[in-house]
From TrEMBL, chain A:
One of its GO terms (molecular function) is ATP hydrolysis activity. This is ABC transporter ATP-binding protein. Keywords: ATP-binding, Nucleotide-binding, Transport. The keyword Glycosyltransferase does not apply. InterPro entries: AAA+_ATPase, ABC_transp_ATP-bind, ABC_transporter-like_ATP-bd, ABC_transporter-like_CS, P-loop_NTPase. Gene3D superfamilies: P-loop containing nucleotide triphosphate hydrolases.
Automatic annotation (TrEMBL), chain B:
It comes from Harenicola maris. This is ABC transporter ATP-binding protein. It comes from the Bacteria. Residues 5-254 form the ABC transporter domain. Keywords: ATP-binding, Cell membrane, Membrane, Nucleotide-binding, Transport. It is found in: Cell inner membrane. Belongs to the ABC transporter superfamily.
């Protein structure tokens, strides 16, 4: 079943159109990557799905229901977003407990909130002693775990990840990528992930769409990426760039 | 080769509720006209090392060293006046994000010229000519137009090239680049580093490249120091990085996903030994 279907999506901010005629669909349980350089419109697509960018035409359907513009409570319980910078996306004056219980309160979820919070903290690999701490007492990787935990509170089925690891060190990135893989395995989640890192896609994702200037230039299986069989020249260029760095640049400039 | 910079037993500390905390714990290195990479995770002290060379760490931070010598200048005992003559003119620094390090209300042309005018007296026509020449050196296609723009009117990659132009126009002997490309796209990263690389070689300068990206550092440097918790734990020639036997360096290398990834899980560094 397709959990997300997008067809002929056009998104504008004011008078400038930043996404042109984008169509793709994501199956349940799949990890789908949107990649491309800054300004290619990849984050804007996530924002349109999440309801943060409202000026769009075309069709977006999530779990078989057409998506209306803007935010809605029902949609929030099905689909959540995780942002790039964990230093900016957590409220500095709220404890982790307050941050995690807020979605439960807003959605008037019945039952013991404390139990649910501890359950989610366990599943993202954070010790329970972190529950009553503030974000500044946590490291970058721990904060990103909290941000992921917050997104999981309402048990959504689709997570939108906007560069979830690009603000993190390589070793911390490895922890977060492993966590995302584990959560999908355990909870059958579906991810749509924006990233510009081809190696991350190769590790985590099943399919990818390469974007440039607001258009999808190629949609491919990750196997095609691994075997270097991308067909569009621009995708090949992106792959070559992430492959090309280890070979000594110094020889070329000499 | 006569060293440009010599560092012996450099220590940086900050006060904390329970006494001073050392963030750089006695590191040693010397640098000639070569490209030195300093890698490490956040909090390893790599940026503090770069900043202490320019004496940019202010109280209550404290920098001590047995020796911190840049050419004939003893950095720790130099007067503020002497340091001002060194900063920008002879050692300059490219910071991480052009959005925060360019002055938003001054045109790009004036900002680049500032470095030159502050340190040398030159006729205005010559300043202008040098500014344009520098912009061409960082591969900006239409310098006459760009000098009149303000920082918000250019892209991140172009902003970083402007930063480099600004830093290199007084012809320094040492460039410290602190994560010069982490705010940029992969496609622009290579461009910016190629430009730094070319100018370093052409002017026979020293470079300290500070980054958390091992592959990037190994591609653009001659020698690499790996830092962890304020100490240098591993040192090797850049081309031998992949063959390093140090467990921490190996751990960092293994934690990176590859383009052709077959592992189901990435190995993680053991943090327990670090949490002391």
């Amino acid at each position: 079943m397709n959990i997300l279907e997008i067809s002929d999506l056009n998104v504008s901010y004011g008078t400038s159109q930043v996404v042109h005629d984008v169509s793709f669909s994501v199956k349940e349980g799949e990890i789908f990557a949107l990649c491309g350089e800054s300004g290619s419109g990849k984050s804007t697509i996530l924002r349109a799905i999440a309801g943060l960018a409202t000026e769009w035409t075309g069709a977006i359907s999530v779990l078989g229901r057409a998506r209306e513009r803007g935010l809605s409570a029902r949609f929030a319980s099905e689909c959540q977003m995780v942002f790039q910078d964990p230093y900016a996306s957590l409220h500095p004056r709220k404890t982790i407990d307050a941050t995690l219980s807020e979605p439960l309160r807003i959605h008037r979820v019945a039952g013991n909130h404390g139990d649910r919070i501890e359950e989610v903290l366990d599943s993202v690999g954070l010790d329970r002693r972190f529950r009553f701490r503030f974000p500044h007492q946590l490291s970058g990787g721990q904060r990103q775990r909290v941000a992921i935990a917050r997104a999981l509170m309402l048990q959504p089925r689709l997570l939108l990840l906007d560069e979830p690891t690009s603000a993190l060190d390589v070793s911390v990135q490895a922890e977060v990528l492993n966590l995302l893989k584990k959560l999908r395995r355990e909870q059958g989640l579906t991810y749509v992930m924006v990233t510009h890192s081809m190696p991350v896609i190769s590790f985590l994702c099943d399919r990818l769409a390469v974007m440039r200037h607001g258009r999808v230039v190629e949609t491919a299986d990750v196997e095609q990426l691994k075997a270097d069989r991308m067909t569009d020249p621009y995708s090949q260029e992106l792959v070559a760039l992430s492959r090309g760095r280890p070979d000594q640049k110094s020889e070329k400039t000499q | 080769m006569k060293p440009i910079l010599e560092v012996e037993n450099l220590r940086v500390s900050f006060p904390a509720p329970r006494g001073r905390v050392e963030v750089v714990k006695g590191i040693n290195f010397s640098l000639g006209a070569e490209r030195l990479g300093i890698v490490g995770e956040s909090g390893s002290g790599k940026s503090m090392t770069g900043r202490s060379i320019l004496r940019l760490i202010q109280r209550p931070g404290r920098v001590t060293a047995d020796r911190l010598q840049f050419e004939e200048v003893d950095i720790l005992s130099a007067s503020d006046r002497q340091m001002r003559a060194v900063r920008g003119a002879r050692i300059s620094m490219v910071m991480q994000d052009p959005k925060f390090s360019l002055n938003p209300v001054i045109t790009i042309g004036d900002q680049i010229a500032e470095g030159l005018v502050a340190h040398r007296r030159l006729p205005r026509a010559q300043v202008k000519e040098k500014t344009l020449e520098m912009l061409r050196a960082v591969r900006i296609a239409d310098p006459e137009k760009v000098v009149k723009l303000y920082p918000h009117q250019v892209s991140g990659g172009m902003g970083q090239r402007v930063m480099i132009a600004m830093m290199l126009i007084p012809e320094p002997t040492l460039l410290i680049a602190d994560e010069p490309t982490s705010a940029l796209d992969v496609s622009v990263q290579a461009q910016v580093l190629d430009i730094i690389d070319e100018l370093i070689r052409r002017n026979n300068m020293g470079l300290i490249l500070i980054s958390h990206d091992l592959l990037l550092v190994s591609a653009y440097c001659d020698r690499i120091l790996v830092m962890r918790n304020g100490e240098v734990v591993d040192e090797c020639a850049a081309r031998d990085l992949a063959a390093s036997t140090h467990p921490y360096t190996r751990g960092l290398l293994a934690a990176m996903p590859h383009l052709n990834e077959t592992r189901d899980e990435l190995p993680m560094l053991d943090r327990r030994s670090q949490a002391t």
